[in-house]
Every structure is written in C-alpha cells, then in structure tokens.
Write a structure and sequence with these properties.
The protein is an alpha+beta fold and 252 residues long. Helix content is 25%, strand content 23%. The chain has a single domain, classed as CNF1/YfiH-like putative cysteine hydrolases, CATH 3.60.140. The protein contains seven helices and twelve strands. The two termini are 19 Å apart.
Length: 252
C-alpha cells in the first residue's frame, strides 16, 4: 500500500493506494485482485476486499464500489442515499463517516480527493475517456456547490501507466488536439511511435478546476517491479484477463 504525504497529514481520513500484494487470489490474479468485474474466483475477490477494508478500518462499513463505465458520471452518498444496486459511474463523493469509498484501476488514473476543512471526500476513476469527458471538473464543481472551497481541496493522482508505456494512435492524438490545441504537450514521439502522458493530462484538468494542492505519485503500473495490475502489460503477455488495483479513502 502506498500513502500520500499530503492526505496523511489529515487525521480525519484514512486512505491507501493498493498494489497486487497481500491477497488470496491465484495465477494471473495473484494476489490482491479487488475487481468483481474480473473473471477471478468471486469468493477470493470478496476476501481481498475484506483484507483492504480491515487495513483501512476494522470497524468500517463495506467498501462502496462502482460499476465503472469510463464516463463523466458520479454518485453522491449522503445520509439519504438508499440504492442497493451498484451504480454505473466513475466517481464517488461522500460526507459520511466510516464509509470507505474506492475506485478500481489497471493503468487508468485513480484520484483521491479530500476537503481539509469540510467533511467531504471523493474517489475518481480517470481513464482517458472519463478525463476527456470532464469527470474531474464535474466532481470538483459538485464539491464546491456543497460548500467546499478549492483552496481547501487536496487531490492525489495515484499509480497509473507511464508515458513511455502508453503508446497511442494518430487518431487518438487528433481527438485531443481538436478539443484543445494545447493538448499536444501531453504527447511525445519516440522512434516514430506516439505516446500519451495520461497522469500529466489529469493533473492539468485538476489545476483547471481551480485545485492547487496536488500530489502526483509517479508509480508506473505497467512496470512489473512495482507489483501493480496492468491491463496493457497483461495484454502484452497474452493473458486472458487481469486483476484490478484498489484506491480507497474514508472519513473517520
């Protein structure tokens, strides 16, 4: 588990970015696969989620997860929230204590957000599609609507695929260039191949939303030595599936 220095200063929250170590899953899911959407044994995934929950708090509620769909949709959990169905969305915002909220990734960017003054946190799954569609600004705007001030918000960009391992096609670049000509700075050419810096793009969107307190954990999920699950690495090894990393935050 990796912790953020900035978030660790706030004693009102608990958090962690977990890699693949410390679970019970086998083979390509070894070992802390937290993805119910994977083809792993569901009992093992449940055990893994419970391992994570206990690391955060032995007395907390079950971890609140989403059915992630690479969208700009989010869900707000307050004391009136009732739904028993796992929502289709890519971010969770809550003001409830003792409720761990989390996102799952396997190269995409996990973002954990905390308001240091107001009791409010968020977990965001930012793949390129969600980021491109505005998931980050939507979450920050909602928090502001609920009384947060950008100067009190801290956002931490978790482990994700590095630019050197994120090769993309020209059409992908054109999509970003059409949206904003300044987006060219998030791409680089190397040996006639084009690469995209997803984490830096995400950071730029957080800054654009007015949040200045940002920590970027430069840990490459593709690099096997870091022990994170990676969709792209699994594909390069011809694996049929891959595990999911969990990034989690909770108000005490």
């Amino acid at each position: 588990m990796i912790k953020s220095k900035k978030l660790s200063k706030n004693k009102a929250i608990k958090h962690g970015f977990f890699n693949s170590n410390g679970g019970v899953s086998k083979n390509i899911y070894k070992s802390l696969n937290c993805g119910p959407g994977s083809n792993d044994n569901s009992a093992n995934v449940k055990k893994n989620l419970n391992i994570v929950r206990k690391k955060i708090s032995k007395s907390s509620q079950n971890i609140f997860l989403l059915n992630q769909i690479h969208s700009n949709k989010f869900v707000f959990i307050d004391n009136k929230y009732k739904s028993k169905i796992k929502p289709e969305a890519d971010a969770i915002i809550t003001d409830q204590i003792n409720l761990p909220i989390a996102v799952l990734t396997a190269d995409c960017v996990p973002i954990l957000v905390s308001d240091n003054q107001k009791q409010m946190i968020a977990a965001i799954h930012a793949g390129w599609k969600g980021a491109f569609k505005g998931i980050i600004s939507k979450v920050i705007k909602f928090m502001i609507k609920k009384g947060s001030k950008t100067k009190n918000i801290t956002a931490v960009i978790g482990p994700a695929i590095s630019v050197k391992n994120y090769e993309v096609k020209k059409d992908f670049y054109k999509k970003f260039a059409r949206k904003d000509k300044n987006n060219h700075k998030f791409f680089k050419m190397s040996k006639e191949k084009l690469y995209f810096n997803l984490s830096s793009y995400v950071k730029s969107l957080i800054l654009k939303s007015g949040v200045k307190k940002i920590e970027k954990l430069d840990v490459d999920t593709f690099d096997a030595k870091n022990k994170f699950f990676s969709a792209r690495r699994s594909k390069s090894l011809n694996h049929a599936d891959y595990g999911r990393n969990i990034s989690i935050i909770m108000l005490n």
